[in-house]
Sequence to fold (458 residues):
Amino acid sequence: MKFFRLLTPLLLTIVAILCFAPAAWAFCGFYVAKADTKLYNKASQVVIARDDEHTVLTMANDFQGEVKDFAIVVPVPTVLQKEQVRVTEPKIIERLDAFSAPRLVEYFDSDPCAVTDSVNLPAAAPRSRAVSQEAEKTSDRSLGVTVEARFNVGEYDIVILSAKESGGLETWLKRNGYKIPRGAKQLLKPYIRSSMKFFVAKVNLDKFEKSGYQFLRPLQISYQSPKFMLPIRLGMINATTEQDLIVYILSPQGQAEITNYRTVKIPSNTNIPLFVKDEFGEFYKSMFQTVYTKEDRKVGFLEYAWDMSSCDPCSADPLTQEELKQAGVFWLDDNSGSNLPASPSFRRPSPRSNVFISRLHVRYSRDKFPEDLIFQQTANSESFQGRYVLQHPFQGELKCQAGREYKQSLPKRFEQEAQTLAKLTNWNIQDIRNKMKLSVGNLTYSWWENLLSWVRLY
Fold:
């Protein structure tokens, strides 16, 4: 069984936004690279669009092997009907990943001898863009399992089950051809005690062959419940190592956070050496592992929080309204429910256009994350992004006093960047200095000798 796996994202075109105001960096600059999920071999991704007590949950997978062996079991708070389930395209999750990924930006120092009026410098402009079938219900009294609903959506055969005890549920799944791993019984118990239902899907081979798709498409479910949670324990059954989970929470309010584990912002807005431009992926993985270890491996990290109508700098274009609807956003307008699954008892709110995204990154294991993730929405609309800065020194002639002072300040700045990088990643400081020497070797003066002099003086 694979739980919450995403197809490998396609390589997206790099998008840049210009901002010529290095003295007031805020959230601008030349976008250079992003740390998206392609950095991780197996990063599960889930999209949760939620307002009030209504949730649209999108799950995708990177299942490898014979599709006949695929099975997914997801605890859900209510019995789902066919109109509450659909398949969608993996591109939507790829778009969310690209839009919210931690990013590398760069600035170029202006000529310190030139007289400029910073008030007249251009600011970065925000980028914006704008059936049902009565299910057959049967029960196996000896196992304590009830089939609450049974239907087909796209290439998936789906049943909704309730159960009285985990052993019976495990036996029922195996009898009915679902290949589940050993150890499922113990992990199913807490969900049964909580009276949760089970969304169970496997591939309809005939429909999959006729569909023409090479990969299984994401499943999207819609339901109404006061529970704002994501079950992760079943995903640990076969796990031999820590697992990465990226959760994109879309809300009309503000930031979302985990309530039963601490939510910590990823280190951000730091200047790092220029050579990292060619090693940004390795930098981000090392930095994440370092801070993850420092936090005792049991926190969730906020990597991005932003109003989805804009981005600064943009690592991908903001999603269109149609794309947001495909991602599960149901509150955009009165007609947005026409092509989205909806809970039969759900009353659509008044029209709104705001969508706020929170990107949460959880690296979890059995011992550090014994509970499923519980979330809450907040009114905090503060923007945040994992953002790392390359600051290129000016390389022209420096004949004025300000230029000479600027030149003398560079060794200290470079050493600070080296120390910052070493602290973030645990990389060897001398290796960092050696790489820095090579990366700025085309300057018209030798900053390295100046750096050594500065280190001796201080």
Notes: Residues 22-261+298-392 form one domain. The chain has a mean pLDDT of 80. The chain has one domain: 22-261+298-392.
